[in-house]
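thread: overnight batch results

M.L. [08:02]
morning all. the overnight job finished for the chain we discussed friday. pasting input first so we're all looking at the same thing
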Amino acid sequence: MMKPLLFIVFLLCSMLRLGAAENRIAVVQTFSADSDSVYVHVALPADTAAQSQVAPAPSRENVKLVAAILAFPFPFGMIGLHRIYLGTKPWVPIVYLCTLGGCFGVLPFIDFVVILIQDEEGLKQYQNNDKVFMWVK
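M.L. [08:03]
and the structure it wrote out:
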């Protein structure tokens, strides 16, 4: 049961990242026919027809809020979902997993605090950051 849940969360973060990067919003719906099955339906708007109906990209404050929620150590920060959302190399979340959540949750907690205290301009330095310690210059 945990693997489908993690897959759905990863898919949602990837779609949010894609939507913010391309100024499009992805629609994700989950259906559960029974307790053992999870189905995911993903639909992207058409290039020309839906452009006028698509909501604008999320504001910096929304990006900050979502990143802070994902950085909170339990349960998402331990697996590095905030780093996936902000953009990083694929090996950084693997480091979070291999170190049991970044030294038992210490690293995601520091990331959580740093994301909360940054302003809009300060948050840009953490986007597409390939360092394990994203706050070290």
